Amino acid sequence: MAISAKWGFNGETKVILGNWHRLWCLLFGPFYYLFKGMWLWAIFSFFTLNGLWIGFPLYNRSIVLRHFHRQGWVQK
Asked: Would you state the pLDDT for residue 50?
């Protein structure tokens, strides 16, 4: 199930998590976080070898949702 969010400043709507987000995180690791604009998580994922391979994909949902919530996006 895809999760979308709305930015309160201008009403822009964006899909922040797709249906296959764990698989994309597992396969592409740091590049997935770079694509999402999460630079610090990308660096951390690179140096820990994607969270010791399975850690980041398991917690990817909470990592991404917390990041976008702190930036002002409101989940629909």
From this structure: 65
**Cα–Cα distance list, 42 to 32, 56, 57, 65 (Å):** 8, 11, 13, 15
Give phi and psi for 66, each to the nearest 5. -65, -40
* Whole-structure pTM value: 0.83
What one-letter code names the amino acid at 73? W
Identify whether the C-beta of residue 42 lies closer than 8 Å to the C-beta of residue 30. yes
Structural tokens at position 19 = 């249906």
Could you read off the pLDDT of 22-48 as tens digits, one per residue? Answer: 888 888 888 999 999 999 999 988 888
pLDDT for res 58 = 86
Residue type, 38: M
Question: Are 75 and 65 spatial neighbours (Cβ–Cβ below 8 Å)?
Answer: yes
